[in-house]
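Example record

One chain of 390 residues, shown exactly as stored in the release files.
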Amino acid sequence: MLPNERQKRLVSTGILLGALTMGHQSLAQWMISGNETKIDLDSGAPLVVNAPQKDSVTLMDFSVFPPLVQHFFDISNSVIGPPSNIAITPDGRRVLIADSLHLDSDAEAGWVPASRAHVFSLGKEGLKPLGEVKTGSQPSGISISPDGHHAFIANRADGTLTWLDLRGDIVSRGEIKVCEPEDSLSDIAISPDGSTLLASVQKGGYLAELRLEGNQVTLTGRRYSVYGQPYRVVISPDGRFGITAGAGSGDPLDPDALTLVDLKAEVPRVVDHITIDPVTESLEISPDGKWIAAVCMAGSNLAADDPHRSEHGSLVILKRDRHGFEVKQRLPTGRIPEGVAFTSDSRTIAVQCHPSKEIWIYQVKRGKVVDTGHRIVTPGFPSSLRAVIP
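Predicted structure tokens for this chain:
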């Protein structure tokens, strides 16, 4: 890794809700939001912002409630891609943030893919920049193995996975091709034992399976056919289920579906499609394995003059049962929900609401999820969200 002089100018706002004493005892309650300023989704389509401010991240300590909050500026990140382009090591000591793109006025979309990820240490002082690591083109979803030894980054623009060794200084072990660039490799999940990886091939409409054995990563050739276009993918804490959700055509009126893959069946296969709300942006499973939280656009990402536009997105809550998961609740969120995450005690859920620059906080109480009414204001559009899971 080479030092990044721009990152060295990272500045904490010092805006704390109380004294930020994030000691070892509260590591498991940390959560990080990536807030970008370059691209606005409010109009119904991604638009480049004129003279954008610096991107930022928000560090939250949920060991107390309301959580303690600290903002760090000049850390480039993006809303283009799944909201899983942040990852924290299980010991809470390192953070990876994908830098997916940079603005280019000559490009048709106004931006072009980038090829790096930021690396930070995380401690009682907050985030400290360590440098950066080279990735493939347009790094997006990131996952770190439960033992903290390896990280994998899905590169959307070239269809590869970047594989990093996190022991000691971060070393790139190389890349493995998963699909063609146009198939849009978006996210990656790692099983609890570290042996199985599931990669979401969004435009291809499948999950690709890979194996990690020692220092070798290989494609198994198995492709799980899932509903719609898979985006975010996770694996349950017991290793049984691979879970993804896909949008169909993106119609705001037609429901979409979550797909369950039984990874422990005699012959691993897709075992269920569960109807949820339209256009799922992200999902997360609770660390205790009992809950899935999925955030859906539900018409909130449409233009203001669209008759089907909604002023609220939706948070869909599913609960584990003997056979899989069942939808239990639907709660409103702010418009255009992006990331969703559980704290490590599985009691608190955070949802990013893009145009309002807020994070809405929910809690699990007596077997039901309730909106606490607490909102965390972010300096930019909150676009990616991860918690530390020890």
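Notes: DSSP finds no helices and 30 strands in the chain.
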